[in-house]
């Protein structure tokens, strides 16, 4: 009797050993076993979307110590919370689950008859099956601009497919909100921005909860480039907050009168920075108190121009462009729904086809905001800014060698590309169809090679822009499922959510989860080199961000220096003395007599190495002038000259030269007046 328990324990031990051996031979290894895979959640909601990607996401850096992966420089995770809350239907996530997150706006039931914005943007009658989860008969779709495309699990699939950086632009528009028929909250832009920032942090906590607690999820909000690099090194997704709104800080303008001041700008920038925002647009769609915009075209342009009038009291104004860059043509296509909002007797003006540039550039308040962003080491988004505004912003950055400039979604004239890369900035292309994307990428390939930089894309999902349509099952080089990720470590199959399975060939880029499929389409259409540039995108974006953070304003050797001039314009009410050009403010200026041969001399007090001089011209500028240096004030050496000056902010760079005295000698005026300078900067670098 006493031996039986012993025999049972022995039998159990033998069986356990056999099971362990079988598990080792037949089952997965511990590193990839379900429940031990760091990239798989331990508590995903049920039911939920499938990811349809297998294999461990790549981690670490390459042999050169650079991060790897794609960057989406322009997305709108929470646009559904902007524009009054009912323009984009559905949520990025919901504590109540996918059925609550992916449902249509109430007014779209039962058949989409009241889907007004869907009708305006897509055409037809707006009718559609409003049911989202679980059938998704009609949405999300590549050409439906009013339904959620950024459900968190779809973003997760893009991360699993190789994306490592995502810029979440907090977005809204007060005018669109005010004129849209349906809304359930205030149209105040900053209120919406604050909410979207909060929800981004809530999404991070939502994902963390699935993975066992704070800091464990794949969705990581970062506020500096070092954090971002560490996140990418771990194989996770670094999320940066940006802002794209039409009236930041309340800076609208009515009949050309600003509705904000410098205190509003400082307070607004400080608040955004505290929220974690590190990049932003200063204007978007409508001219505001900071800058003029790059126009929209066609019927949409007409509708936006109506909004411009309703917001500002003025329509867009155009002029002939003075350089190779130009704004988009406005066009004359009708937009009856929008034009009906105009007061009786008011109509959208017509525009000359040879006048494609906005008359409005960067205002004085806009320049103050740009310099405020520089002080806070923030990156400026120049897409949507008029040619005149971009030119001035780049002049300011070049004068101080500031690298923080971003073009994130093809809303910049490509003729600026060299200047952006020359500063150390970053460029991404809108999520065009593969053929168009490849063509644009090839147009700028030589410059990427010249500056040794990677490339990015801006999906602009939930940004009412439209996305790549299907190329068809008979298209050459169509995507074949399953396919390998760019790094080769993951296998990617068709994406399934509920009862719907999407195929890029037949559905196009219907939602964010199809980003990896779209990249595979680019590879098949354009070749591996385009995708290689994209795979270097995360590194290049973080290079720009890091250089922005490290930037130190150069010492202005001319600040407060002793000055003399050949002449000074007399005025009984104010002084235009030469010292006004080095007093550190644009509120004063030096002005000469009204004749060609004039000069301004600056005494630095002692000999310094001089390699850069900046000249901030008033309207009376020098067309032909030279910069001369001297150690004794007697013998002068010309180090830089031009005969094609056009005013604005000029930066003269030359080989560093010892000098105590700097002289700007004008030989031909650009106007009938004299020469007039707000500020002159003298720098060693």
Automatic annotation (TrEMBL):
Residues 1-33 form the signal peptide. Keywords: Signal. InterPro entries: FA58C, Galactose-bd-like_sf, Metal_Hydrolase. SUPFAM superfamilies: Galactose-binding domain-like (SSF49785), Metallo-dependent hydrolases (SSF51556). Pfam families: F5_F8_type_C_2. Residues 550-685 form the F5/8 type C domain. It comes from the Bacteria. PROSITE patterns: FA58C_3. This is F5/8 type C domain-containing protein.
């Amino acid at each position: 009797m006493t031996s039986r328990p012993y025999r049972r324990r022995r039998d159990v031990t033998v069986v356990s050993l056999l099971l362990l051996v079988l598990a080792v031979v037949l089952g997965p290894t511990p590193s990839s076993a379900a429940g031990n895979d760091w990239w798989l959640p331990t508590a995903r909601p049920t039911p939920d979307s499938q990811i349809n990607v297998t294999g461990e996401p790549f981690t670490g850096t390459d042999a050169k110590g650079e991060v790897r992966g794609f960057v989406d420089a322009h997305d709108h995770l929470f646009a559904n919370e902007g524009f009054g809350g009912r323009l984009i239907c559905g949520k990025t996530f919901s504590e109540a689950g996918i059925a609550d997150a992916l449902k249509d706006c109430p007014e779209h039931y039962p058949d989409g008859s009241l889907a007004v914005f869907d009708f305006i943007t897509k055409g037809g009658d707006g009718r559609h099956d409003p049911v989202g989860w679980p059938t998704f008969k009609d949405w999300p779709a590549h050409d439906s601009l009013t339904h959620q495309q950024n459900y968190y699990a779809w973003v997760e699939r893009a991360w699993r497919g190789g994306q490592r950086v995502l810029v979440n632009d907090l977005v809204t528009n007060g005018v669109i909100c005010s004129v849209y028929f349906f809304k359930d909250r205030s149209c105040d832009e900053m209120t919406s921005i604050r909410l979207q920032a909060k929800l981004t942090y809530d999404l991070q906590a939502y994902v963390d909860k699935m993975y066992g607690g704070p800091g464990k999820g794949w969705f990581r909000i970062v506020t500096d480039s070092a954090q971002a690099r560490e996140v990418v090194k771990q194989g996770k997704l670094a999320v940066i907050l940006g802002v794209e709104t039409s009236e930041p800080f309340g800076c609208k303008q009515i009949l050309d009168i600003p509705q904000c001041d410098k205190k509003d700008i400082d307070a607004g920038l400080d608040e955004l920075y505290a929220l974690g925002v590190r990049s932003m647009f200063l204007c978007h769609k409508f001219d505001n108190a900071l800058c003029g915009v790059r126009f929209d075209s066609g019927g949409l342009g007409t509708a936006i121009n109506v909004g411009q009038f309703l917001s500002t009291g003025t329509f867009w104004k155009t002029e002939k462009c003075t350089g190779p860059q130009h704004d988009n043509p406005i066009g004359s296509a009708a937009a009856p729904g929008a034009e009906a909002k105009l007061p009786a007797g008011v109509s959208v003006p017509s525009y000359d086809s040879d006048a494609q540039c906005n008359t409005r550039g960067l205002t004085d308040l806009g320049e103050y905001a740009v310099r405020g962003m520089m002080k806070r080491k923030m990156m400026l988004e120049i897409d949507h800014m008029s040619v005149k505004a971009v030119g001035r912003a780049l002049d300011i950055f070049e004068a101080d060698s500031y690298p923080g400039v971003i073009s994130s979604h093809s809303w910049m004239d490509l003729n600026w590309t060299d200047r952006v890369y020359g500063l150390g900035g970053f460029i991404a292309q809108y999520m065009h169809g593969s053929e168009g994307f490849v063509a644009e990428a090839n147009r700028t390939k030589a410059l990427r090679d010249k500056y040794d930089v990677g490339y990015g894309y801006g999906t602009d999902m939930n940004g009412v822009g439209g996305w790549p349509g299907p190329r068809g099952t008979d298209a050459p080089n169509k995507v074949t499922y399953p396919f390998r990720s760019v790094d080769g470590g993951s296998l990617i199959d068709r994406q399934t959510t509920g009862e719907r399975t999407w195929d890029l060939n037949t559905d196009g880029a219907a939602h964010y989860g199809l980003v990896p499929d779209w990249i595979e389409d680019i590879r098949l259409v354009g070749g591996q080199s385009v995708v290689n540039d994209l795979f270097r995108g995360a590194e290049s974006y973080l290079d720009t961000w890091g250089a922005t953070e490290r930037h130190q304003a150069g010492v202005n050797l001319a600040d407060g220096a002793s000055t003399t001039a050949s002449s000074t314009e007399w005025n009984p009410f104010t002084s235009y003395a030469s010292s006004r050009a080095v007093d550190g403010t644009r509120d004063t200026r030096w002005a000469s007599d009204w004749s060609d041969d004039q000069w301004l001399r600056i005494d630095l007090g002692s000999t310094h190495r001089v390699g850069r001089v900046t000249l901030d011209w008033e309207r009376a500028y020098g067309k032909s002038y030279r910069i001369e240096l001297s150690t004794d004030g007697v013998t002068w050496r010309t180090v830089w000259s031009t005969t094609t000056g056009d005013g604005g902010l000029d930066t003269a760079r030359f080989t560093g030269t010892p000098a105590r005295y700097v002289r700007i000698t004008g030989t031909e005026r650009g106007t009938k007046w004299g020469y007039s300078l707000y500020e002159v900067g003298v720098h060693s670098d």
